[in-house]
Amino acid sequence: MKIQDSILSAAFELFMNLGVRSVSMDDLAQKLGISKKTIYASVETKEDLILQVIGNFLKLEESNIRKITTASSDAIDEIISINRHILSYLRVMKPSLIFDLKKYYPECWDMIENTHLRFIREVIEQNILRGQQEGLYRKDISPMVISKLFITKSLLIIDEKEFSLINNDLYELIMQLEKYHLYGIVSPTGQKQLLDQYNSTSLQKKSND
Predict the structure, then answer these.
(1) 128-140 residue pLDDT tens
(2) Residue 186 backbone phi and psi in degrees, to 5
(3) How many Cα neighbours within 13 Å face the side chain of 154?
(4) Which one, of 146, 116, 114, lies nearest residue 130 by Cα?
(5) Mean of the pLDDT values across residues 180-186?
(6) Is 135 helix (H, G, I), strand (E, B) or coil?
(7) What is the mean pLDDT of residues 7-33?
(8) Which residues pair with 137 in a beta bridge?
(9) Among candidates 128, 57, 107, 114, which has minimal Cα distance to 86?
(10) Is residue 83 a contact partner of residue 65, using CB atoms and an 8 Å limit?
């Protein structure tokens, strides 16, 4: 593995476990067993390091989501599988990481908000179109409008002003958003599938697998 790849991999692990602001370049150097001078030969500043780490992570996530979309059996399976994938890394993510990026590293947050969330919105829109074609989602909803609403609600639940994680579990908030979204868009056929195959217990279990 190239030294730069090692640096980005170690930094990602530290950021996920400890948050962004609390990790210093000294911490990273100690974890890797190298000097800060070696680190600065690959990255210019801590913000540059964060940008590279987040950029790589988003590219990987987009690739993983495309694979999920291709492998899913139908629209409901697709959206639940994507949600389960997201929850898998939220379990190990320090909650303060999101807040640190928004408050102290706005350029990094802008990359997430303007690039990755646009990608997610497009995925949701295509999922709704797919569900309508499969007869699992209602025909009287607008894929464009609902996908935008989904992203807006997703941003709302990670807003510490609205939902402080001191009093709310991010995992539970996302599960509630999933149920709110699905039960609002499914057709009678889709609702039957949810009740038969993806009822509340199954959703919880599938997300915990």
Answers:
(1) 999 999 999 999 9
(2) -75, 150
(3) 20
(4) 146
(5) 93
(6) coil
(7) 92
(8) 186
(9) 57
(10) no
